[in-house]
Amino acid sequence: MVIYVQPPYAEVVEKTFLPFSPPNIAAMSVISRGELASLAYRNKWATPKQTKLEELLKKIPQVDVNNDAIIQMFGEIDAFSQGYHPTKSSTMSARNMGKNDIWIAATAVISNATLITTDKDFDHLNGIFLSVIYIDPSSKP
Question: Residue 128: inside a domain, yes or no?
Answer without folding.
Answer: yes
